[in-house]
Amino acid sequence: MKIAVTGGTGFVGRNLVNRLLSEGYSVTVTTHKSPATGLIEGNISYAEASVGDVDNLRRAFDGALVVYHLVGIIAETKRKTFQMTVVEGTKNVVEACRKSGVKKIIYLSAMGTSADASTVYHQTKYLAEQAVVSSGLEYVIFRPSVIYGPGDGFVSLLTKMIKASPITPVIGDGRYMLQPVYIDDVVSAMVGALTVRSASGRTIELGGPEKLEYLEILNIIRRVLNKRQVNLHIPLWVMKPAAFIMEKIVKPAPVTRDQLAMMQMGNTGDIAPMIELFSLSPVKLEDGLRKYLR
Predict the structure, then answer these.
(1) Could you give the CA distance from residue 213 to residue 216 in angstroms, rounded to a whole number?
(2) What is the β-pairing status of strands 177-178 and 212-213?
(3) Burial code of 241-277, b = ≥16 C-beta within 10 A, e = fewer?
(4) How far is residue 107 CA from its own chain's centroid?
């Protein structure tokens, strides 16, 4: 079976593509000025295509039966907005799928997405989901919580901070809840969606087995690294105007008001369908970290 992957050079994409290749699938990775690194050898090809170009996407998807759509952003830049990249980009992917004869689309959304979401990030994710649902194609939508693993954008950043200084900055009280999910579990579910028929037409949340406060996560990372530190709490009333200023000056901003709002909301969900559908036993955070952190 031939499979196409958008966003195949990113953190989730690399891990997904490597699993697909190891299981003998033929994979086409779409690229847009992004080097394809960290991929194993196998039946793989590359096609230059961005989510803004339907014709190039159609050519990239030619012959594929399934498309994994992973492209997304967590902060806007001058050229990449949530509306253009997430909403319009997904609509373009859907149109290209139809034109090239793709039968199934598997979309990576985000936990917390809903019709009445309070953040622009989740609002646009929901609109992208709706484009997939109304596509007429067979589909599976995944909504992961924070994903961690080698080379991620979450634990890797916290690890660097913990190693670099005896003081760790914490925004707010640090008691917001997260449900970190190990990359191997995410990939297992996504690959499972190829063959588990009962997953089709469903929106499935992906998370780890523990719902943890951010402070607990920091303590687990420190324990794995054998580090002792103190937290420096930065009040939200300080961070919100700072985020506003950064949004105006830096693109993408290191911290946005949208991200602060998402942080306050927390990020947890119901992973019972994930466990049942794909026969998974998700890894606890400390066990996952000990697989690769030193």
Answers:
(1) 5
(2) antiparallel
(3) ebbeebbeeeeebebbbbbbbbbeebbbbebebbeeb
(4) 10
- Residue 95: Cβ-neighbour burial (10 angstroms; 0-12, 13-18, 19+): middle
Q: In angstroms, what CA-CA distances link 155 with 59, 222, 260, 288?
A: 36, 11, 18, 11
For the stretch 145-193, pLDDT in tens is: 999 999 998 899 999 999 999 999 999 999 999 999 999 999 999 999 9
From the CB of residue 75, how many other CB atoms can be counted at a distance below 10 Å?
A: 18
| Both structure tokens of 63 | 């012959």
Token representation of residue 248: 């105006």
Task: Say how far apart CA 121 and CA 262 lie, in whole Å.
Answer: 9
**DSSP string for residues in the chain:** -EEEEETTTSHHHHHHHHHHHHTT-EEEEEESS----SPPSSSEEEEE--TT-HHHHHHHHTT-SEEEE----SS--SS--IIIIIIIHHHHHHHHHHHHT--EEEEE--TT--TT-SSHHHHHHHHHHHHHHTTSSEEEEEEE--EESTT-SSHHHHHHHHHH-SEEEEETTS--EE--EEHHHHHHHHHHTTT-GGGTTEEEEE--S--EEHHHHHHHHHHHHT---EEEEE-HHHHHHHHHHHHHHSSS-SS-HHHHHHHHH-B----HHHHHHHT--PPPHHHHHTTT--
**Domain 2-149+179-208+268-283: CATH superfamily, name plus number:** NAD(P)-binding Rossmann-like Domain (3.40.50.720)
Q: Where are the domains of the chain?
A: 2-149+179-208+268-283
Determine the Cα–Cα distance for residues 204 and 189; give it in Å rounded to an integer. 9
User: For the segment 200-210, what is each residue's pLDDT rounded down to a tens digit?
Assistant: 999 999 999 99
